[in-house]
TrEMBL record:
<feature type="domain" description="NAD(P)-binding">
    <location>
        <begin position="7"/>
        <end position="111"/>
    </location>
</feature>
<dbReference type="InterPro" id="IPR016040">
    <property type="entry name" value="NAD(P)-bd_dom"/>
</dbReference>
<dbReference type="InterPro" id="IPR052718">
    <property type="entry name" value="NmrA-type_oxidoreductase"/>
</dbReference>
<protein>
    <recommendedName>
        <fullName>NAD(P)-binding domain-containing protein</fullName>
    </recommendedName>
</protein>
<dbReference type="Pfam" id="PF13460">
    <property type="entry name" value="NAD_binding_10"/>
</dbReference>
<dbReference type="InterPro" id="IPR036291">
    <property type="entry name" value="NAD(P)-bd_dom_sf"/>
</dbReference>
Length: 286
């Protein structure tokens, strides 16, 4: 079996490749990359690499030859039309090369009334896949826990979490746990052959007061919860180029749309995802 992973140089993609190597040989894995200079990340592990451009169907047709299972990790962008175009071009390449099996990695903010700017895209893809003759599964990640670790020094300085979500809880998953579930689904036909939809979360969600308490216990610093207004939050992050987009996501959180908790991860892997307290404790260094 040949497993081809798109977005393989990203934070999640590299972990998916490593998790696949726990179950299959390097010759069974192909990493597609956008920057040829990053090929060494995989070549030193004996993994074949191919350079693709999501805007160029021909490049993907060449790269996907011989693929049995495509693991599609989309671009990390905030442009719905571009994201849909990239997916449709990828789907065209999939159909041209005769790939029969696809694992799509999405995000759980996909409800019809979700104000997150990319919710329409994440809602579109499962419906689009359902209209094809592919064997597929969709894995929807909760919010990544990983960015909270480098964010802790700023939170310690501020003395408070500032997310504008009110008292609504948020669900998280670590990238490593996500990668384990993705690789397991990709290598297990029974988990990916019937249009399954999985939502990957930790065993529980956390309101911000609870999350602040966990952070305080782990860092030894006093961290509370002092939410900004949505407009103030957007302005605070506008200079970084994603204030509106992040604001729309936390607006969804405030509406209670990012609080989903499932046991899908355990059903896939046979064990619970790492909960937030042990995750932060394992990764935080003073």
């Amino acid at each position: 079996m040949k497993y081809t992973v798109t977005g393989a140089t990203g934070n999640l993609g590299q972990l998916v490749v490593d998790q696949l190597l726990a179950d299959v040989t390097p010759s069974d894995v192909r990493a597609t990359i956008h920057n040829p200079k990053k090929a060494s990340l995989f070549e030193q592990k004996g993994i074949e690499t191919r350079t693709i451009d999501y805007a160029d169907v021909t490049s993907m047709v060449d790269a996907f030859q011989g693929t049995d299972v495509l693991v599609y990790i989309p671009s990390n962008i905030y442009n719905v039309l571009q994201a849909v175009s990239e997916f449709e071009k990828t789907l065209q390449a999939v159909q041209t090369t005769g790939i029969k099996n696809m694992v799509y990695v999405g995000f759980y903010a996909d409800q019809e009334r979700n104000p997150f700017v990319m919710s329409s895209y994440f809602g579109y893809v499962p419906r689009r896949l359902a209209s094809t003759d592919l064997h597929f599964a969709v894995l929807k990640n909760a919010m990544y826990a990983d960015p909270l670790v480098p964010y802790l020094p700023e939170l310690i300085e501020r003395g408070a979490i500032i997310y504008p979500v009110g008292q609504a809880p948020l669900s998280y998953i670590s990238r490593n746990d996500s990668a384990e579930a993705i690789a397991t689904v990709a290598t297990t036909p029974a988990l990916r052959n019937n249009g399954q939809l999985y939502t990957l979360t930790q065993p529980e969600s956390y309101d911000m007061d609870t999350l602040a308490t966990i952070m305080s216990d782990i860092t030894g610093a006093k961290i509370g919860y002092a939410p900004m207004t949505l407009s103030a939050f957007i302005e605070a992050y506008r200079a970084e180029g994603d204030g509106v987009e992040l604001g729309s996501m936390y607006h969804a959180g405030n509406l209670g749309l990012l609080s989903t908790v499932t046991d899908d991860f355990k059903q896939i892997t046979g064990h619970d995802a790492q909960p937030m307290p042990s995750f932060l404790k394992a990764h935080y260094q003073k």
